[in-house]
Every structure is written in C-alpha cells, then in structure tokens.
Amino acid sequence: MLTLLISRPKQPGNDIDAYLQPLIDYLKLLWNGVEGVYDAYKWEYFKLKAVLFWTINDFPTYGNLSGSIVRGYNGCPICVDQTRPHRLKKGNKLVFIRHHRGLPRHHPYRRQAAIFDNIVEEDLAHVPLTGEEVLTKVESLNYEFGKREESTPHVRIFDDQDRPCWKKKSVFFQLEYWKDIPVQHNLDGMHIEKNYCDSIIENSKPEVFHASNPLAAPIMISVYGKEMEQAHMCILQNIEDVGGFFSEHMELLKLLHPRFAKDEKWLKDKQN
C-alpha cells in the first residue's frame, strides 16, 4: 500500500518515516496482540502477535530507515566515528580505506602496507554498536520533516570531530523491542551486486574517463543483454559464498547428463 502513498516523482528519502507511521502503529498493535483472530485450520479463535525482525534494503535506503549517515566522512554505519576516509588527489573522490583491520590478527595482508595505503595495519575491527547504544546517541536528535528550501544554505563542517554519524532517530525505535534486536537492518545482496556489476562494466570501458583526469566526469554507459549476463556471471563466480553452489550445480549437471560429464565446454555453457 505504501507504493500508492508515495506518488511523487522523487523518493521521500529521510521523510520515509512519515509514510511508515501507519505501519508502526499496526506493529505496535500486533506486539500487544489482536484478540479474536480465527484459525480456519483449527476452527478456533486465537490472539495474534507479530514483531518486525529486520529490514532488507540497499545502502541509501539503509540510511533513510536507520537514520545513519551513509555518505561522506562517516559514511560507514558500522565504523561510525572510526571510519577512515581518504580523498583522492587526482579525482577528488572520497574513498574508505583501512578495511583490512577486519581481517584476523595475524593475516598476511595486515603487513603488506604497499598494496594498501603504506600503513601496517595494527588496529582491530570496530565493534558494532548495540541497539541501546544507538538509541542513546540519537535520542536527542530533532529532525524536521519536509523538503528543505533551495535557498537554505548548506552548513559545511570542517572539524572531523564534529562530523555527525546520524541524521535522525529512526521511526522504528517507537517499537519498544527494536533496541533489543541485534541486527536491525540488512543489505540486499542482489541489489548491491547488480549495482556493483554495472559499475565494473562502466569503469572498464577505455572511453569512460577523460585522459587528463582519470576519475573525473565519468560517462554513463548502459549495458544490456549478453554483456550484462556475462558481467553478472563473472561477479557470481568470484563471490566466495556463492562458489559452493556453482560446484553443486556442476555435479548435478554431470549426474543429469552423463553423456556430457567429461565435456567441459558443454558443462560450462549449460551452467552459464
């Protein structure tokens, strides 16, 4: 029903809370329980209860729903104020480094400074905040709903210590159990994979970037058909968590088509 309510050409962004309020009211009702619900299988009435377990969305929506900053200097909702941003000298793009601090303590990548930022990584991974800790930090935030007037000037913050990590208190904190859920928001792997795949295709074209400034003014290229399928398959085959499924599928093909069990080309084409 929310798709019928959000009828403007632009997405509501952080104002999504206003559209979610009816859903929150229903979830509060379901948390307390609804009497007199009829079970057609057992032929009896019962008290219906339900909880919202988590949300699944892409990264920009993650910020809109959770209230976290997902761009700029503190753009990692897990690392928050421990995010390590770096601005590229040539392209003036903001990138995030020091991710190998999440590796095991004695992983060889930690000492291979030359392939990263010339820093031997000694730090440990940041421990994500609990729901109660996040609620404590956002409790006092006041967010004004509605689109900001174009004439309103942007406030630029230069001191890194003053850069915010949250922009609002999430509407889901109106649910009394929300602060106790260990994983409140999840990222949609399929959605992100598709965006990542598009980015690889666009950036792999030699004509995409200007020769004088490699990371400035990219030309958007739309990829369809067989090129998109090939890129999608390439991404899948290089994701560690998916590798096992490819092996199982290959064994299944050999079992179903014993005549072609030794024909590697046929099996590969069939799998793709």
What does this 3D model show about the protein?
This protein has helices spanning 2-5, 16-32, 59-66, 131-138, 189-203, 225-237, 240-256, 264-271, and strands at 34-39, 44-48, 55-57, 85-87, 94-96, 185-187. It is α+β, with helices and mostly antiparallel strands and 272 residues long. Strands 1-2 form a two-stranded antiparallel sheet. A two-stranded parallel sheet has the order 3-6. The protein has a two-stranded antiparallel sheet with strand order 4-5. Strand 1 (34-39) and strand 2 form a beta hairpin. Helix 5 (189-203) packs across helix 6 and helix 7 crosses helix 8. The longest helix has 17 residues, at 16-32. The radius of gyration is 24 Å and the shape is extended. The model is unreliable at 151-155, 157-161 and 206-218 (pLDDT under 50).
Short description:
The chain contains eight helices and six strands. With 272 residues, the chain is an alpha+beta fold.
